[in-house]
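Hi support team,

I submitted a single chain yesterday and got back a structure, but I'm not sure I'm reading the token output correctly. Could someone confirm the output below corresponds to the sequence I sent? I've pasted both exactly as they appear in my results page.

Thanks,
R.
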Amino acid sequence: TGRAHAAGTVFSLRGVLNRFITPNGDAKNDVSIHCVENPKDSSLTGKILDLRGRVVSDMVRLRNTGGGATIAQCKLAFPPQAAVNIMDAMTWDGRAAGGAPVTSGVYVYRIEGEDSAVTGTLVVAR
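Hi R., thanks for writing in. Yes, this is the structure output for that exact sequence:
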């Protein structure tokens, strides 16, 4: 679902911008953005998998300190809780690890940090 997280863990997925992406270069819904509250500024990794569980690509982490407009979008859509002001973003542009565009379909994302993980699905439409 992308919403599951354990209380007191390192991070929590606040929400996903662009769960349905159309990576065609028109600057509209080209990238999936996963907004992550990360109060301990822990190391995060993200992977995109196909429905058979094979890794398609790594996600790109944009950190609170250098994420620019993407982090601003996350903070606007999912305001951080009062005590937490560290918001990271994990992004994916619809490309496989080698840079080739993936085919249309459903993909699984998995974001991990320390002993926690969150998974969910997203759709690529071409």
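A quick pointer for reading it: Residues 1-7 have pLDDT under 50 and may be disordered. Let us know if anything else looks off.

Best,
Support desk
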